[in-house]
Amino acid sequence: MRQKLAATHVFAYPFLMPSVNIIGIHPFDYSDEQFDHAVTQSFGLVALNPDRNTREFADYATRRSLQSIVLIEMLVRGRDKTMYIGDFGQSDHEIIGPNDPVAYEEVFLSLDGTMRIGDYLDQVKGDDIRFAFYLHGYRSGMPILTTYGPVQPPSLTPMPARLKHLVPYKLPEND
């Protein structure tokens, strides 16, 4: 006679990892106002400086910095409690270090990507999660590191209007 398994017996598959998909990577399309703010934040009132070379350097360095910013939209299916937004970024190493660029100004979206549903990971219910974040110092072709391992980035595409609206960019404040 066969024995029946108790109804409470659960088979676990600990080797199944959540899946991570990069939906898109979009260059930051900064405004003149954001540019001016970034120059002032990094170099002070350099526009008043009589030295042309100093003004040109501030302009060049600020443009280069702003042009390295991208917005990354991702979908994680089957996330678990180990997911940590600080694990999402780029590094020359296999894990994110203290000086590596990581997710900034993350926003959590509805699964169809049309609505903002939260600013913090713990506000999102369910195992599937869609979110977008800015990354400073993006290096094309270098993997995006995540809690669940590296993911190869797709080619850059223009930022969709819905993301410009749902994920506005704020410059980091200097300490």
Kindly describe this structure.
The N terminus is likely disordered. It contains three helices and five strands; from the N terminus they run βααββββα. It has a domain of 109 residues. Strands 1-2-5-3-4 form a five-stranded antiparallel beta sheet, with no helix packed on it. α1 crosses α2. Helix content is 19%, strand content 19%. With 175 residues, it is an alpha+beta fold. 20% of the residues are buried. β3 and β4 form a beta hairpin.
Write the layout of secondary structure elements.
Elements: E1 19-27, H1 32-43, H2 52-67, E2 70-77, E3 104-109, E4 116-118, E5 129-135, H3 161-166
Quote the average pLDDT: 86
Distance between the termini: 73 Å
- Radius of gyration computed on alpha carbons: 21 Å
Count of helical stretches: 3
**Percent helix range:** 10-25%
**CA-based shape:** elongated
Q: Could you tell me the number of beta strands? A: 5
What would you call the structural class? alpha+beta
Percentage of residues in DSSP E strands: 15-25%
Tell me about the largest β-sheet: 5 strands, antiparallel
Strand order of the largest sheet: 1-2-5-3-4
Q: Provide the low-confidence segments as ranges.
A: 1-13
Order of helices and strands: EHHEEEEH
